[in-house]
Amino acid sequence: MLINEFLLLGAVLFCIGIYGVIARKNAVMVLMAIELILNAVNLNLLAFALRNGSPDGHVFALYVIAVAAAEVGVGLGLVLLIYRNKRTIALDELSEMKG
Amino acid sequence: MLAETLVAQNISFGIIATVMVVGAIRVVTSKNVVHAALWLVCVLAGAAAQYLLVYAEFVAITQILVYVGAVMVLFLFGVMLTRARIGNENDLNNKNWALGIPVALTMFAAMAIASTAVRIDTQAVSDAIFKPYLLPFWALSFVLLVAVIGAIVLARKD
After folding, report:
1. Which Gene Ontology molecular-function terms are recorded (chain A) (predicted)?
2. Which residues of chain B have a CB within 8 Å of the CB of A71?
């Protein structure tokens, strides 16, 4: 019933998240856009779980939520460390790895 | 399934989806970091409501607990610890921000075509992956343990 609409909503959120990752300069804002992308993936997983009538998609969505929590914890730890060392989290000023 | 249930589901889906899309656009365009975080709360809570619509109660509750409860607090702490000033800012986008629009639109076109013509046998894949899904669960607990220890080690002042 709602499956195609769910997939479209997931696609919209995913692409807004992609735009955020590309356009944003603040590292915390980029992490927020990554959360949008992960939520779009969860919408897709649950839509497929509904279509197949199986709980596996729910399990996978829970895994994604847990991994996203771990990712945010480590990511914000890294951002804090970068801020402490460089006094900035603007991503285009952190270009030491550019050749 | 009752026809009234279907109609109600579709109407609520439309309302919540509109709120989520508007909120997501505000997240990536807002000039204020704290406002972006609060719009993200709106999107995440809307996602939880959508999960309820597809009978995924447990995932919806976990979404509220983990995302709205824990992850957003982490984000607000991150904003607080890394930004000197709270308020509007004009240079939150980087130089190549306009590149993001064509990339996102192209991806959306591809995904819209794929998702309206979707015929994937996910059942076989998920059966293969998740018949023994205790093992990934254990792996996940180790991932979380490593993440907690790693975040503490990274953020601790020595």
Report:
1. oxidoreductase activity, acting on NAD(P)H
2. 147
ipTM, 2 decimals? 0.86
CATH of the domain at A86: 1.10.287.3510
Test B71 with A26 for CB contact under 8 angstroms. no
Chain A touched by B92 (CB under 8 Å): yes
Q: What is the CATH number of domain B3-88?
A: 1.20.120.1200
* Cα–Cα dist A9/B100, whole Å: 19
Residue B56 per-residue DSSP state: -
Output B109-114 pairs: Cβ under 8 A, ≥24 positions apart: B111/A7, B111/A11, B111/A14, B111/A15, B112/A8, B112/A11
The count of structural domains within chain A is 1
If one compares B118 and A15, the residue with the highest pLDDT of the two is: A15
Amino acid (one-letter) located at B15? I
The tens digit of pLDDT for each residue in A3-53 reads 888 899 999 999 999 999 998 888 888 999 999 999 999 999 988 888 877
